[in-house]
Amino acid sequence: MFWNALLLAMREIRRNVLRSFLTILGIVIGVAAVIIMVTLGGGATVQVTQQIASLGSNLLIISPGKRLGPGQTVGAAPFSVDDTLALARDFPQLAAVAPMASRSMTVVYGNANWSTQITGTTNDYFKARNWATGSGRLFTESELRAGAAACVIGQTVRQKLFGNQDPIGVHIRVQKIACEVIGLLEPKGQSTMGTDQDDLVILPLRAFQRRIAGNQDVNIIQVSVREGASTTRAQQEIERLMRERRHLSENEENNFNVMDMKEITKMLTATTQVLTALLGAVAAVSLLVGGIGIMNIMLVSVTERTREIGIRLAIGALEREVLLQFLVEAAVLSSFGGLVGIVLALAASVGLASVLNVPFVFNASIVAIAFVFSAVVGLVFGYFPAKKAAQLDPIEALRHE
Amino acid sequence: MSTASIPVIELRQVTKTYGRGTAAMQALDGVDILIQPGEFVAVMGPSGSGKSTCMNILGCLDTPTTGSYLFQGVDVGKLSRDQRALLRRHYLGFVFQGYNLLNRTTALENVELPLIYRGDPAEVRHQRAREALAAVGLAGWEDHTPGELSGGQQQRVAIARAIVTQPGVLLADEPTGNLDTARSQEIMEILTRLNREQGITIVMVTHEPDMAAYARRTVHFRDGLVVGAHEEAA
Questions:
Q1: Which of A290, A394, B57, B223 has minimal CB crowding within 10 Å?
Q2: Per 3-state DSSP, what percentage of chain B is helix, strand, and coil (rounded to 5)?
Q3: Angstrom distance (rounded) from CA B175 to CA B183
Q4: CA of B231 to nearest chain A CA: how many angstroms apart?
């Protein structure tokens, strides 16, 4: 009985190419839309997570100024190197304390010049940011102490000034000083804020202060908390020490700001989760729309085929034989459409992921969900109208036009 | 014929009522018909006289409201829906006024359809279907779909489909209703030949006395009743 049903089903599919094609198309679109959506959404989420990880999540950023609101500060006195030394001395739970002074300037090599961020700091900066050199080396103690004209550059600066040439040992000009490139940092890519983290030149803090800034200011202190220690407690203790050092009385507000990168990380994670939930909702809607498409074509085709059912019943087909045939037809079309949809979706996802510059993340469960959902919709809406038609009196079904 | 003693079709006081209450319509009002194996019976009567209702009951497509229908001695009223389908499959052949072939399906595939439901293997199906098509003069037309055939040819495919299972009874509901005189005569000659050569019992509804003349006996219907039967000189 099953082989007969399969034979009859395959004949009907072959005979009605357009109808079969439309049914399959509905399923293909439903399945493909969902898979593409979720795969790309998953890729974007992974990318954001990677960016957060690249930032270093134990990071505290101490900056002078009163905080008026998110990202708004009013000016206040900068920090000094002594502040940094005090932090490092008083708090053993800090893995790195990096004083930083920065300025945007043009660097020149041969005919090439490039406007970038020049930062003076110590080797603690690389430790805090969890950043290593791809080639060359970091600063030596004597270079730091003497304020030598040596610099470590990011990948973007390398590319703009040197192309693919090896920059190690070459001298570039920063303002009036010729500065030897001693190290090239590993690429870090875009930050979560969309800025290029590799667009920077780093000098010893003392070299920056003496030869470029002409003062002893430290604009920002980046601190990384040791693994296992509480960043919240470190934040509170740093605030207390800094209030003391900046001679703030009991009722005065902080004229500096200690920002926990974990808070930002949390915020971004929350944003990503909202994004993922949104994509899931969109996917569910497109699955629903795909399902309705399948349902429509199934309903129309069974209604149109009532007379055919009448003929089959009149020449002696049993109700269950007619039903089985329709069920097999629906199953063959649904699963074929589902497979085509999966193949198309994966191909499109790989292509789009590379165009949109997000990683391709294969999500087996959404592939399975989309396939099963479409197959079930196809089967249910192929089955029930056919059941209704097969229960008609043959005479009624035959009269149906 | 060995089964001559048992009538192939016997209707006893069959009534059929459509609808209920005041809207009820009495299509058959107590019909008695007796048909012996090998007969060729024409059923005539004006529209609405109940002859199509009677055919549907004879074909086990419909059931009587009261009275009984014995097919080869078996009470059809006591059979289940599936059993009636199996009875149609093995013992009855149908020819309709509107042909009722599957669209976009070749003549051969249309004819072998009843054999698929019967579970015959592919070679047997093809062989029998070809023979049935040859019997109605359509050898060489096996691969044509209904859209590529004339009305007369489509009706002949329908006859081939009805006889491919070698049924005892062939029921034809106005088989020539959509055809011109020449085509109609071709169809009638095929039916007559099947009746004479293969001994198939034929019951045929028709409007046209010319067609009824091919039958050996005519049953007249009026207002849901049989109003008199008479033998034709065959």
A1: B223
A2: 40, 25, 35
A3: 11
A4: 31
Q: Taking CB atoms and an 8 Å cut-off, how many pairs form between chains A and B?
A: 62
CA A68 remoteness from chain centre: 31
Q: By C-alpha distance, which of A135, A141, A127 is closest to A206? A: A141
CB-based contact B88:A316 (threshold 8 Å): yes
* Min Cα–Cα distance to chain B from A28, Å: 26
Q: Is A307 on the interface with B (CB under 8 A)?
A: yes
| Residue among A7, A318, A395 minimizing CB distance to B116 | A7
CB neighbours (10 Å) of residue A18? 7
Which residues, including other chains, have CB under 8 Å from residue B156's CB and lie 6 or more apart? B136, B137, B138, B186, B187, B190
The structure tokens listed for B140 are: 């060489």
Helix, strand or coil for residue A167?
Answer: coil
A399 touches chain B (CB under 8 A): no
Query: Is residue B130 one of the residues assigned to a domain?
Result: yes
- Minimum distance, in Å, between the CA of residue A354 and any CA atom of chain B: 46
Does residue B119 form part of some domain? yes
With contact defined as beta carbons under 8 Å apart, do B58 and B171 qualify? Answer: yes
| pLDDT for A56 | 64
Q: Which positions in chain A touch B81 (Cβ < 8 Å)? A: 319
Residue with structure tokens 């040197």? Answer: A162
User: What's the pLDDT tens digit per position in A54-101?
Assistant: 666 688 889 888 766 655 556 778 898 889 889 888 888 888 999 999
Flag whether B210 is in a domain: yes
With CA atoms as reference, the chain B residue closest to A307 would be B100
Cα separation of the two ends of chain A: 29
- Assigned domain for B48 exists: yes
Contacts B117 to A, Cβ<8 Å: 4, 312, 315-318, 321
Count the neighbouring beta carbons within 10 Å of the beta carbon of residue A41.
23
Cβ–Cβ below 8 Å for A398 and B119? no
DSSP A305-342: THHHHHHHHHTT--HHHHHHHHHHHHHHHHHHHHHHHH
What is the pTM (predicted TM-score) of this model? 0.69
Distance CA A323, CA A309 (A): 9
Chain B segment 143-162 residues within 8 A of A by beta carbon are 161
pLDDT in tens, B132-143: 999 999 999 999
Q: Do B119 and A4 touch (CB under 8 A)?
A: yes
Strand B40-44, strand B217-222: pairing: parallel
* Domain tally, chain B: 1
Residues of chain A neighbouring B92 (CB-CB closer than 8 A): 316
Q: What part of B 76-135 touches A (C-beta under 8 Å)?
A: 81-82, 85-90, 92, 94, 96, 100-105, 109, 113-114, 116-119
Would you say B225 and B32 are in contact if contact means Cβ atoms under 8 Å apart?
no
Note down the domain range covering B119.
38-61+91-231
Here the CATH number for the domain that contains residue B189 is 3.40.50.300
Q: Does B29 touch chain A (CB under 8 A)?
A: no
Question: pLDDT tens digit string along B87-123?
Answer: 999 999 999 988 999 988 999 999 999 999 999 999 9
Please check whether residue A188 touches B, CB under 8 A: no
For the record, the structure tokens of A351 come out as 């292509």
